[in-house]
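Notes from the 1:1 (GR / supervisor)

We went over the backlog. Supervisor wanted to see one worked example end to end before approving the batch request, so GR pasted a single chain during the call. The sequence is below; no edits were made to it. Supervisor asked that the structure be written out right there so they could see what the output format looks like.
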Amino acid sequence: MLLTAAASAPPPTVDVSITGLRNTKGQLLVCLTTNPKAFPDCSKDTGSVRMAVKAADAGDFAVRAPATGTYAIAVVHDENSNNKMDTAIFLPKEGFGFSRNPTITVGPPSFKSASFVVTGDMRQSIRMKYML
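Structure output shown during the call:
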């Protein structure tokens, strides 16, 4: 059997399943990054993969990783579709979730606690959390 060069292989796909959505309003804002400094807000990471998924379609969706590597996923349930997480007195009013479902205490989890290695197609199950 011949092995083809990695350059010709398609980028890996991370199949994501979301559980615990409190409703199907709005959208999910999804961020896949390899940059610990850009986690969980990918806005400062030009190499991140960012996408919006209709909440009604969020049970299962695919994210294409640009290449193999160590990634973390952050998800926000943007119920009012304003493309940001709304807060009330420092607490998120909308749901959120992270790859590997790390324990949330104060503030977002570390990149390390949410990161996973992508070497090929794989699956991540993310459980949504709501504070308010």
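Supervisor's comment: The mean pLDDT is 92.
Batch request approved.
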